[in-house]
UniProtKB/TrEMBL annotation:
<keyword id="KW-0326">Glycosidase</keyword>
<dbReference type="Pfam" id="PF03352">
    <property type="entry name" value="Adenine_glyco"/>
</dbReference>
<dbReference type="InterPro" id="IPR005019">
    <property type="entry name" value="Adenine_glyco"/>
</dbReference>
<dbReference type="InterPro" id="IPR052891">
    <property type="entry name" value="DNA-3mA_glycosylase"/>
</dbReference>
<protein>
    <submittedName>
        <fullName>DNA-3-methyladenine glycosylase I</fullName>
        <ecNumber>3.2.2.20</ecNumber>
    </submittedName>
</protein>
<keyword id="KW-0378">Hydrolase</keyword>
<dbReference type="InterPro" id="IPR011257">
    <property type="entry name" value="DNA_glycosylase"/>
</dbReference>
<dbReference type="GO" id="GO:0008725">
    <property type="term" value="F:DNA-3-methyladenine glycosylase activity"/>
</dbReference>
Length: 209
């Protein structure tokens, strides 16, 4: 069981909008390291509309629970190697032996419940294809409006839509998909835009104007 690495800033440990060294306005968390700044500038909040990409983001959000997002980003290459680039068809056939193997992999988060959740969710992803698929299910919960936070305190940690999506995913056999985890997913993949008003990235996804 992994414990939180306290010396790595948490993605949710934010402050009001600030200007980073390059002069661009970002939330505090995005200015704390090159890794987080690059992630914020190029990936966070951009639309993800393919099954494998969504399965990866869902899996990583599950691993992040209780830990820092920067830790997950640092370990993402190892996660991809361990979980077959998050190809649901390959992960779905992982066995108990694979679970035991992954529990010895120091490159990832060695948490049995989280590892087993990825395998369970891969199988659920495959089953969901007969009902329209993971992409359709997730994006069908896009709200009519997105938040417009001015400070970090204005950013919600969950929403009616994230709660509804969490229920829908659980109904389809997914695990580690609570409303808070799912809201973080929705932020990361552009279903909602929680870039602070005034950030240079606000509205950059093309989903929200």
């Amino acid at each position: 069981m992994e414990t939180t690495i306290t010396d790595i800033p948490d993605i949710t440990d934010t402050d009001s909008l600030i200007h980073c060294e390059d002069g661009r306005a970002r939330p505090t968390w995005a200015c704390t390291s090159d890794l987080l700044r690059d992630y914020y500038d190029t990936e966070w909040g951009m639309p993800v509309r393919d099954e494998q990409g969504l399965f990866e983001r869902l899996s990583l959000e599950g691993f992040q629970a209780g830990l820092s997002w920067e830790l997950i980003l640092r370990k993402r290459p190892a996660f991809r190697a361990a979980f077959a680039d998050f190809n649901p068809d390959e992960v779905a056939v992982f066995t108990d032996a694979d679970v035991e193997r992954l529990l010895t992999d120091s490159g990832i988060i060695r948490n049995r419940r989280k590892i087993e959740a990825v395998i369970t969710n891969a199988r659920a992803t495959i089953e969901l294809r007969e009902k329209g698929g993971l992409v359709e299910l997730i994006w069908s919960h896009q709200p009519a409006e997105t938040p417009a936070p001015v400070t970090a305190d204005d950013v919600p940690s969950r929403s009616p839509e994230s709660a509804a999506l969490a229920r829908a995913l659980k109904k389809e056999g997914f695990t580690f998909v609570g409303p808070t985890t799912i809201f973080a997913l929705m932020e990361a993949i552009g279903v909602v835009d929680t870039h602070l008003v005034g950030s240079w990235r606000r509205g950059s996804s093309g989903v929200w104007t």
